[in-house]
Design brief:
Layout (H helix, E strand, L loop, with lengths): L17 H19 L2 E2 H8 L3 H13 L3 E8 L2 E8 L5 E7 L3 E8 L4 E8 L6 H18 L7 E8 L3 E2 L4 E2 L13 H8 L3 E5 H11 L9 E6 L3 E7 L2 E2 L31 H4 L1 H8 L7 H9 L3 H25 L3 E5 L7 H14 L2 H6 L1 E4 L6 H12 L7
Parallel strand pairs: 4-7, 7-10, 11-14, 14-15
Antiparallel strand pairs: 1-3, 2-3, 4-5, 5-6, 8-9, 11-12, 12-13
Helix pairs in contact: 1-3, 2-3, 6-13, 10-11
Pfam family, one: MarR_2
Protein name: ROK family transcriptional regulator
GO molecular function: DNA-binding transcription factor activity
């Protein structure tokens, strides 16, 4: 998100003075790093509108003051200097609630992950139980890593279901029906920290353009394939939420008119033919009961597993073709617990996409697996906290 699109604090000094201008430029750079994560000097120039010479000078001043740290890197095949905020006295927490799991990541202002935990949750757990488990785990993680509660800027929460942003409430259609009706106040009361929350696929998309390798992509679709299937959208460099905040619900695209009834109430939704829950049901006779077994059997060349993945991939590709035809993204990133399968799963999704997309759109859409794996949503939740920060901690 470009720093120039957010308000900045102005110095109390004469706004025309060199000192005031330098402080304003420092704030602009810090805002950009807080929102976008570590960036090269060239990326900072593009995002802030400042010249590369100004960026270089200001970064040097901020580095000497201990506000940022730099390290050599490569960008587009050229040597570059990566810049990150280096204050470690404040942290952001990202929590990803799934149907069967809970993941928590704790990150610094400089987007360094200092702690991360992933545990299983019972299927069908009540929201109150999940929140209490998360609160207890977070308390333990903070203690284990000697992080004071006062150092926590806030907690970002990812939930697998639609969220009405007007009411700040989980609404019907969530893969966790036990969470329908949960709102921001209940999350804050249960976690005992300031909370921002979003749909998990939206957070996956945010993670890809902050933690992932797609920071320079303005139009990106992140599709999470798990117990549910949803898409997060980055359009023109910003997360897209539509009118209510309920976007990217491709898991409820109708694939077969006379299919089985989905939990949303419709028939033949994508989730009823291509979610990991459906894959597990189809492979249960073969003794498959966990997603990890789908991955291992596919990698071992099991024909039944590969057939189930191929059918699911074709259906997902068909749904993504409709999205691609509508918004023409530069990149589609596939995430979730099957991401480590790589081309074993991606190839069938690509065939479905190419079969149903307008040829020029399909050919220009780059389809990749997430490099963040199952961490994406928790990392995106931590990034959401950092982007919402108005108080400066450096």
């Amino acid at each position: 998100m470009p720093a120039s699109s957010r308000p900045h604090r102005h110095s109390a000094r004469n706004p025309g003075s060199q000192t005031a201008l330098r402080e304003l430029n420092q704030q602009r750079i810090a805002d950009t790093l807080l929102a976008s994560g570590p960036s090269t000097q060239a990326e900072l120039a593009r995002q802030t509108g400042l010249s590369t010479a100004t960026i270089s000078n200001i970064v040097r001043i901020m580095s000497d003051a201990g506000i940022v740290e730099t390290e050599p890197t490569t960008s587009s095949g050229r040597r570059a200097l990566l810049v990150r905020l280096c204050n470690r006295s404040a942290v952001a927490v990202g929590i990803d609630f799934g149907r069967r799991h809970l993941r928590i990541a704790i990150a610094t202002l400089g987007y360094d992950v200092v702690a991360e935990e992933n545990i299983e949750l019972p299927v069908g757990h009540r929201a109150e139980e999940g929140i209490e488990t998360a609160s207890n785990l977070l308390t333990k993680m903070l203690a284990d890593n000697a992080i004071a509660h006062s150092s926590v800027l806030g907690v970002g929460v990812g939930i697998p279901g639609p969220i009405d942003r007007r009411a700040g409430r989980v609404v019907q259609g969530a893969i966790l029906p036990e969470w329908v009706g949960i709102d921001l106040v209940e999350l804050e009361d249960g976690l005992r920290f300031p909370v921002v929350f979003d749909n998990d696929a939206n957070l996956g998309a945010l993670a890809e353009v902050t933690w992932g390798p797609h920071s320079e992509i303005d139009n990106l679709v992140f599709v999470k394939v798990g117990s549910g299937i949803g898409a997060g959208l980055i359009l023109n460099g910003r997360p897209f939420y539509g009118g209510l905040g309920i976007t990217g619900e491709i898991g409820h695209d109708t694939i077969t008119d006379n299919g089985v009834v989905c939990h949303c109430g419709n028939r033949g939704c994508l989730e009823t033919v291509a979610s990991t829950s459906v894959m597990l049901d189809l492979l249960s006779r073969s003794g498959v009961s966990r997603v990890g077994q789908i991955v291992s059997r596919a990698q071992a060349g099991d024909s039944a597993t590969l057939r189930v993945l191929d059918d699911a991939g074709l259906a997902i590709g068909r749904a993504l073709a409709s999205v691609a035809n509508l918004i023409n993204p530069e990149v589609v990133v596939v995430g979730g617990p099957l991401a480590e399968l790589g081309d074993l799963f991606l190839s069938s999704i690509e065939r479905g996409l190419m079969r149903h997309a307008v040829p020029s759109v399909g050919e220009s859409t780059r389809l990749v697996m997430s490099s963040l794996g199952e961490r994406a949503e928790a990392l995106g939740a931590a990034a959401l906290v950092l982007q919402h920060q108005a108080v400066r901690h450096f």
